[in-house]
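quick one before i forget lol
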Amino acid sequence: MDKKFALGKQNLILISIGVIIVVIGFILMTGAPSEESAYNPDIFSFRRIVLGPGISLFGFLFVIFGILKKDKHD
């Protein structure tokens, strides 16, 4: 009996790459918070407001692409 899975090896590799990209985006969004005693202007930095979310969004789209990609053999 030959079992056929819904996602092939290439799909799983693409999904894994997408998840890694999402994690990188979330890491870029981390940083020190502002406290009541001291204001931290870094919470509005380009890296935390634009770059991190943009990379995470790209990673989520890449995961969707990895799920929807069809094999050439089918």
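fyi The first helix runs from residue 9 to 28.
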